[in-house]
Amino acid sequence: MRILLINPNISQSVSDLIGAEARRAASAATRIEVVTAPLGVAYIETRFEALIGAYAAANLAAEHEANFDALVIAAFGDPGIAGIREAVDVPVVGLTEAALMSACLLGGRFSIIAISRRITAWYRECVQVNGLIDRLASIRCLDQPLRDIGAIQGDHETRLRELCLRAVEEDGADVIVLAGAPLAGLARSIRKDIPVPLVDGVSSAVRHAETLIALAPGRASRGSYAPPPTKPNQGLSPAVQALLERRRP
User: Fold this and answer.
1) In what order do the strands lie in the sheet with 110-114?
2) How far apart are CA 198 and CA 102, in angstroms?
């Protein structure tokens, strides 16, 4: 299996975290690659930044999808995922939906641990879009400046552990979702200290992608996820233009 993880942000340090956790989680025979957006922001925190990330992810998907069996949108919030699913021929999995579906298999109510306060309203909307708002116990977050997006785990591990415990003790969480690519792999290092299951978005997405590849469910040619219709366009990257012009049955 060949799985491409797309980091829709420009932070190479986060891509390195993503790649390391993805390779730990993947089956031995699965080949993992990670690409980093050449444009955009260091990390997505707002709805507008998610639009930028979606555009970056769409371009990377168009450039690389022919060489892979599945794509992972490797940012919490899954920027652009529905549109990318319409356009490509392989399964597309997002960190948010994969983590939330994993959480629902492990307990009744889940809490999300986030890296900033600004991000929490958008995360709540993402949970609602996935139809799981009634199972959300809480969203708890760091509330202090971030020195380096790739160093959040080292800088704030103690506080992140405390947030997990408070979500369990005060909010009644049955499962904890560690949200966002900058927290990739944290679950492995703090799992022994938390009395409920921990879910990592990157490892969940990789394993769900492997499942979809193995199931070989086929590709939509009708319905709302059918490929976009051919129409005049301009100013698009050659890869996106080629993807839109590809004709499918």
Assistant:
1) 136-141, 110-114, 175-178, 198-200
2) 10
pLDDT digits (tens, 9 = 90+) for 103-148: 999 999 999 999 999 999 999 999 999 999 999 999 999 988 788 8
C-beta of residue 134 within 8 angstroms of C-beta of residue 214: no
* Calpha distance 222→74 (Å, rounded): 27
Residue 156 CB-half CA count within 13 A: 22
Burial string for 189-223 (b: 16+ CB within 10 Å, else e) reads ebeeebebbbbbbbbbbbbbbbeebeeeeeeeeee
DSSP state of 181: G
Stated as kind and residue range, the H or E segment containing 159 is helix 152-171
Interior angle at CA 29, CA 9 and CA 197, nearest 5 = 60
Domains defined for the chain, CATH in brackets = 2-94+205-245 (3.40.50.12500), 97-201 (3.40.50.12500)
Cβ-in-10-Å burial (0-12, 13-18, 19+) of 20 comes to: middle
Whole-model pTM: value is 0.92
Give residues with Cβ within 8 angstroms of 206, minimum separation 6. Answer: 3, 5, 22, 25, 26, 30, 32, 72
